[in-house]
Amino acid sequence: MAALNGWYAPDGTPTAAAAREAPAVRRGRLPGRQRRPYFVCGHFAAPHGRYATQAIQLFDHCEGFAMLFDFGQPTDGLIQMAFVVEDLDAAMARFSESFRVGPWTVLRDFAGENPRYRGEPSQARAHVALGFGGHMQYELIQPADELPSVHRDVITQQGYGFHHFGYATTAFDETVEAMHRKGYETVFSASVGSDSRVAYFDTRDVLPGMTELIEASPGLDATFTDMYKASL
Question: Same structural domain for residues 177 and 91?
């Protein structure tokens, strides 16, 4: 276990500082003078701004402390930022030049297994590129057709740009149910890879984009870690 902002001892157990500051994190406050985002108990704590408290409240059912994937992000926390783009090849080149993201893993005509949009089977497909910049994964999405989808929803209503936060969870079913209890319906779901599922929720009422829950699994960890290592 690597240290996370000094909150873990070398053996991976939470430090006294973690226990002391955890309640403040849930209230949306950062310990001391720290200004960087950080994770605890599966929560993303923004350093300031109108979204800090809401982001934490979406996932306040979590208990315990987050472990880390081999690519350096928490198994219960934010791991991905996603954007809808008009031209996938042009967007990959722009992100690589501007932010040194890449190399890219490209999936053409992708939808996952058993895709469902707003409760109904979906035929929509997208061209998707995944790449790392540091420990954060970036996803670029170009719809491959005009069919209804969570991607077309954002493009139609807001235009191209930021689409969703990818949030990993080790308790996928429980986290999905927690979102339902908060009034968010599942607007898209699918199985991805050999042992993972995803579910999207339209959280644009409290966040700048949708939220994708990503089931943490050994297969996902291995695949994303390979992408991360290729970026070093």
Answer: yes
